[in-house]
Each structure stands twice: as structure tokens, then as C-alpha cells.
């Protein structure tokens, strides 16, 4: 980065000095009676991690904003945990760099990075009380003994566990243990908190409650959070932005709305929410978009901005039309014949809505989510139906 311009030079100098302050931050107590954290930005450039001939992470570039809650979302083996371990310093990359507040930490030891970490299994010391667990990182940082009790109590209050300090981890519920792990990770006021699938061991209701609590805590403190999960609902609920990972690469970074409404690749479209992919053939092209023919000779126009390809396809090319189940309309076959013809193979009532599975003439299976009491209410299994969808709900991906 060039710093010849005096204003740019000052900006870079300030960023670097702020980064140094984060890294050397001692454990001086906050001025007010609560945890006080300044989140730090993270820049990841061309980061690669290779094990033998296999690349776990391949050339990742990512900017994480100060005070942001960013989730690394992807299936097992996508590289998200490896990336998190390199941020923590437990793994070093083969190529690329990581900077925290403008300071290069790529090969810095974990204990020098001043980064908090919450593990999947909490990693609490079973022979220590809650208070002793939370105090441990302060002792490791040689905080004066007189300051430790007050800081521990503030951390307990922060996670709503005041009065639990003398209990052992075995006397706590899973949710309470997770709160202790969060308090221990934040008690020394790190600028960044890394979380590796921290809620996976909890039941559904507790997990949903902890999602809200962690997000509210992060917003209140202003700490930068990098959160690893394979649970798309969890990522959509908690994150300011989500980085979807697959095959060691970042497929797309965006808000929950951007990823759901405008997925950049079939991988993202399929991984975020549920998506139908309906094979079709491009039969016409104009300035406004492409026209695709689907099973049964139904024809649909897809606007140019909804064709997820750098260049328009050619006539005769295979296209996969992507449409969400809840945006697929279904009607009895004898009511409307302008849609895609199919047969209902299964129907299931799931409370607020019902699922229908429809098989098209070419064998494609399409899932439909319909409100109970709607047009699909009287449609039974083995019925002939027509499927339609609004133009704005359809996106086209190259079939290859």
C-alpha cells in the first residue's frame, strides 16, 4: 500500500499503532464497571494451507471489519476450521498473510496474539471452580492479584452468572458451561473472539437461546467475532456477514439476505436454505435476458441480472433454473396448463405449512412449500399439478 500522500500515511500509521495497542494490551481494568472492548479489523490475503498434496485452504482473501460478527459457514472438510486455527495461531499457513489491526500476526505465537477462543467442547478445567476458570487467563497474563476478583465478577455478570463463581463445571448445565467459556475468553478484553462450533453440543432450544445471547453480547461489547459453523440457520440468525466455504475456498461473502436472495454459485444456492434446480435449455437470448424451455415445453424468461454467469449462455446451452420451494406455486393440473406439469409423489403437514414433492415428466423432483389452507390444501398424492413461479424468484446457472 502506498503511503506517499500525507493523509494516507497518517491513516496507515494510526491503524498500525492501534494494532500494536491491541496486541500489547495489558489487563488494566476498564474505566467503568463492565467489560470494555475495542474490536479489531482482520485482513487475510492469499492464505493457503496444504497437507501433503491436499489443500485444506486455497488462496483465501477476506477482510473482516472491526466489531463485526462474521461466520465461516460450510460443510465438513470445507476448510473453515483450518482457517480459524490459522487465525488463532495453532496452524501456520504455507502461503499468504494475516494482519490484525494492521500488524502482521501470520507467524506469531498464539499467546502473543491477544485473541480469545471458545472451543466446541468448552475446554473448562474440571478441577477448578467457575471463578478460577475465568481468572486463569488473567493469571497467565500476570494481572495484579488485587485486580483479578473484580474483573472476574464483571465477566460473570456479563454472561448472567453472578453467584455461580464457586460452582464446579460439573454442577452447571451445558448452556451455563458455554457462558463460562465465553466469559473466560473475554475477561482479558481481546479485540477478537474466535468461536469453533461452540453450540453444537446443546439441544435445539438451548442452542437457539444461546445464539441470541451471544449475538446480543457481541453487539454490546463491540468485539470482532469470527464464528465457525456448519449450521446455516445458526449463521443466518447471528451474523452480520457470512463467508460460505467449499473445497477450501470462499464461494461468496455477504449478508444473510444477499446469500439467500442472490447466491453467486450453485454451491451457495444449494447450501443456503433449500433450493430446487430445474434443468432447462436456452432457446432464445435478447438484451433483457434468456428464455429457457423446461420439461413439458413450458417456457420461462429469466432477466439478465438473474443469470449467474459472467457471459450470457448460447442458444442450446443447458441451464439450471434455481427457485426456492416457498416461491414455487402449485395448482391442480386441470386449473392452469401454462406451468410445468408434474405428479405429486408425497405430501407432509409440518405445522405452519406443508411440503409437497412433485416429479416432473423428465424425472426431476421439485419440492414445494405451501401455506396450509392455500391453493395446495386440496391437492392429494398422485394428483396431476402445474408448477409456476414469479420471474423475480428464478435464477439461472450454467448447467456445466
Automatic annotation (TrEMBL):
InterPro entries: AAA+_ATPase (IPR003593), ABC_SmlMolc_Importer (IPR050093), ABC_transporter-like_ATP-bd (IPR003439), ABC_transporter-like_CS (IPR017871), Mo/tungstate-bd_C_term_dom (IPR008995), P-loop_NTPase (IPR027417), PotA-like (IPR005893), PotA_ATP-bd (IPR017879)
EC main group: translocase
An MF annotation (GO) of this entry: ATP binding
Statement: the UniProt record of this protein carries the keyword Translocase: yes
EC number: 7.6.2.11
Catalysed reactions, semicolon-separated: ATP + H2O + polyamine-[polyamine-binding protein]Side 1 = ADP + phosphate + polyamineSide 2 + [polyamine-binding protein]Side 1
Location of the ABC transporter domain: 42-272
UniProt cross-references to CDD domains, sorted A to Z: ABC_PotA_N
Keywords tagged on the record: ATP-binding, Cell inner membrane, Cell membrane, Membrane, Nucleotide-binding, Translocase, Transport
Function of the molecule: Part of the ABC transporter complex PotABCD involved in spermidine/putrescine import. Responsible for energy coupling to the transport system.
Family per similarity comment: Belongs to the ABC transporter superfamily. Spermidine/putrescine importer (TC 3.A.1.11.1) family.
Subunit structure: The complex is composed of two ATP-binding proteins (PotA), two transmembrane proteins (PotB and PotC) and a solute-binding protein (PotD).
UniProt protein name: Spermidine/putrescine import ATP-binding protein PotA
Organism the protein comes from: Paraburkholderia sabiae
Amino acid at each position: 500500500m502506498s503511503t506517499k500522500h500525507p493523509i494516507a500515511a497518517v491513516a496507515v500509521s494510526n491503524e498500525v499503532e492501534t494494532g500494536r495497542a491491541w496486541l500489547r494490551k495489558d489487563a488494566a481494568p476498564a474505566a467503568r464497571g463492565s467489560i470494555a472492548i475495542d474490536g479489531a479489523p482482520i485482513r487475510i490475503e492469499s492464505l493457503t494451507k496444504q497437507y501433503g498434496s491436499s489443500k485444506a485452504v486455497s488462496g483465501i482473501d477476506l477482510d473482516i471489519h472491526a466489531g463485526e460478527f462474521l461466520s465461516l459457514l460450510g460443510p465438513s472438510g470445507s476448510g473453515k476450521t483450518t482457517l480459524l486455527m490459522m487465525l488463532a495461531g495453532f496452524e501456520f499457513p504455507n502461503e499468504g498473510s494475516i494482519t490484525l489491526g494492521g500488524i502482521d500476526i501470520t507467524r506469531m505465537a498464539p499467546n502473543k496474539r491477544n485473541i480469545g477462543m471458545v472451543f466446541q467442547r468448552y475446554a473448562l478445567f474440571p478441577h477448578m471452580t467457575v471463578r478460577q476458570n475465568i481468572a486463569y487467563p488473567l493469571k497467565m497474563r500476570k494481572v495484579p492479584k488485587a485486580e483479578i476478583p473484580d474483573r472476574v465478577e464483571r465477566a460473570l455478570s456479563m454472561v448472567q452468572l453472578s453467584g455461580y463463581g464457586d460452582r464446579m463445571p460439573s454442577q452447571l448445565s451445558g448452556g451455563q458451561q458455554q457462558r463460562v467459556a465465553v466469559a473466560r475468553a473475554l475477561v482479558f478484553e481481546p479485540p477478537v473472539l474466535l468461536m469453533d462450533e461452540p453450540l453444537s453440543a446443546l439441544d435445539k432450544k438451548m442452542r437457539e437461546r444461546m445464539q441470541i445471547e451471544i449475538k446480543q453480547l457481541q453487539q454490546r461489547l463491540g468485539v470482532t467475532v469470527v464464528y465457525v459453523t456448519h449450521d446455516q440457520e445458526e449463521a443466518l440468525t447471528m451474523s452480520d456477514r457470512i463467508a460460505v466455504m467449499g473445497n477450501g475456498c470462499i464461494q461468496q461473502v455477504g449478508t444473510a439476505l444477499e446469500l439467500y436472495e442472490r447466491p453467486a454459485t450453485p454451491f451457495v444456492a444449494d447450501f443456503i436454505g433449500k433450493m430446487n434446480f430445474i434443468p432447462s435449455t436456452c432457446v432464445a437470448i435478447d438484451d433483457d435476458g434468456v428464455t429457457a424451455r423446461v420439461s413439458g415445453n413450458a417456457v420461462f424468461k429469466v432477466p439478465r441480472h438473474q443469470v449467474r454467469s459472467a457471459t450470457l449462455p448460447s442458444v442450446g446451452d443447458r441451464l439450471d433454473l434455481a427457485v426456492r420451494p416457498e416461491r414455487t406455486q402449485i395448482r391442480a393440473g386441470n386449473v392452469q396448463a401454462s406451468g410445468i406439469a408434474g405428479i405429486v409423489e408425497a405430501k407432509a403437514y409440518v405445522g405452519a405449512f406443508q411440503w409437497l414433492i412433485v416429479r416432473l415428466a423428465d424425472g426431476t423432483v421439485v419440492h414445494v412449500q405451501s401455506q396450509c389452507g392455500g391453493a395446495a390444501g386440496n391437492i392429494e398424492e398422485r394428483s396431476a399439478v402445474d408448477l409456476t413461479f414469479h420471474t423475480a424468484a428464478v435464477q439461472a446457472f450454467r448447467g456445466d
